[in-house]
Amino acid sequence: MRGTQYPTVVRWKDIPESSEEELVLDVGALAAGHRGQYNLGSWTVSSDNRRVAFTADFNGDGQFRVFIRTLSSGKVDDQGIGGAASGLVFGADSKSLFYVRNDPITLRASQVWRHRVGSETTTDVRVYEEKDPTFSVGLNLSKSRKFVLLSIEGEHTSEVRYLATDRPNGELKVIELLRRGVIYEIDHVGDQFFIRTNLDAPDFGLGPRTARK
User: Fold this and answer.
1) Is 152:159 a contact under the CB 8 Å cutoff?
2) Would you say 84 and 102 are in contact if contact means Cβ atoms under 8 Å apart?
3) Which residues share a beta bridge with 138?
């Protein structure tokens, strides 16, 4: 919001000339009561449009907590998962939430976990762990909203794995195995992955690949 320290996140219905806005997050209200700083990380709305998951850093050290709220009432469904990085992705069931945990000592983003909305964090399932200290992990949702994208990145190399959002309990699949010196990133549109890579293209090239669930 203009003139304030913190933003307000709103959205509109995807229809022509829609003027009806819905409040997603009032960051100023969330920050109230925190004497230190309050940094909003990422946020994402579930597929059924009922909940918003978001991350907040209270100390400026890159250690986030994950929160989940019901949009219509503002009710907090989960009070917070600590020691997390910023990335979040909902499964298509709107109850499975994928998030990243940091190494407690180095703060390196190293693990991906799956949380069930409303459940105890002790029941969360670890779906991936990167043990090489020179690599870190990140999460994104594909533009098609059909896949969870897990990126594994080092200084001069990368690897991407994917999981269909409608199969949150499934196994991650690899686009291309890690090769030293080869960097690539992907997204998914329609029924194809699009890969941007420096393989045989120092200035990077783009190519499609059909998605396999």
Assistant:
1) yes
2) yes
3) 151
